[in-house]
Write a structure and sequence with these properties.
Helix content: 40-55%
CATH topology of the largest domain: Rossmann fold
Number of strands: 7
Strand order of the largest sheet: 2-5-1-6-7
Structural class: alpha/beta
Order of helices and strands: EHEHHEEHHEEHHHEH
Distance between the termini: 17 Å
CATH architecture of the largest domain: 3-Layer(aba) Sandwich
Strand content: 5-15%
Number of helices: 9
CATH superfamily of the largest domain: P-loop containing nucleotide triphosphate hydrolases
Largest sheet: 5 strands, parallel
Number of domains: 2
Length: 204
């Protein structure tokens, strides 16, 4: 059963799976997308309202009026207690941004919430359908290690914080494969939109 208002789609996938590409394809197709990572960047950027709280909790993690991820990362990456402290600051604020986005797009047929750690934070309970983006492990690894500043150690530490891809796929309502061409991926996105739109149409 869908909730009142737009159908809410949780879009997720492990690092390097192509989630940003898929989010752009939903947007291209006219579906509003809430980017949780972008919201976090704004909240932690210059003048962001979370900067003072994060500096207080993690002294030395900000520079020039913004959270510096290269400074904050090592403070939390392998420390579950530190991760929880950071989440307690960040998640409520992102929730407020999410609610504002939903209010703005209340008349849309459907909206996408692009959330990297959807399952890890229990976010699947707050959406109508979950879409998982998936690619072969060797392609994922190649994509991530090609990123500036990425190392095998950092990649493995990030993976350790995320549910295994196989588990995400098993728990998904829809899976978008990104190991093939962009056109194949786009067709999968459009098929999901059509399927959800059909569910929303009242039967005669």
């Amino acid at each position: 059963m869908t909730s009142p208002g737009p159908i809410t789609i949780g879009l997720t996938g492990s690092i390097g799976m192509g989630k940003s590409t898929v989010a752009a394809m939903f947007l291209e197709a006219g579906v509003p997308v809430f980017d949780a990572d972008a919201a976090v960047h704004a909240l932690q950027g210059v003048g962001g309202r979370l900067v003072p709280a994060i500096e207080a909790a993690f002294p030395g993690s900000t520079r020039d009026g913004a959270v510096d991820r290269t400074l904050l990362g090592p403070m939390v990456l392998s420390d579950p207690a530190a991760v929880k402290r950071l989440e307690a600051i960040v998640h409520p604020a992102v929730g407020e941004e999410r609610a504002a986005f939903l209010a703005t797009h209340a008349s849309a047929d459907m909206v996408v919430f692009d959330v990297p750690l959807l399952f890890e934070t229990g976010g699947e309970s707050r959406v109508d359908s979950v879409v998982v983006v998936s690619a072969p492990a060797d392609l994922q690894r190649a994509r991530v290690l090609a990123r500036p500043g990425m190392s095998i150690e950092k990649f493995e530490a990030i993976l350790a914080m995320q549910l295994p891809n196989a588990e995400k796929v098993a728990r998904a309502d829809f899976v978008v494969p990104t190991g093939g061409s962009h056109e194949e991926t786009r067709r999968a996105v459009h098929a999901i939109i059509a399927c959800l739109a059909a569910r929303q149409t009242p039967s005669s």
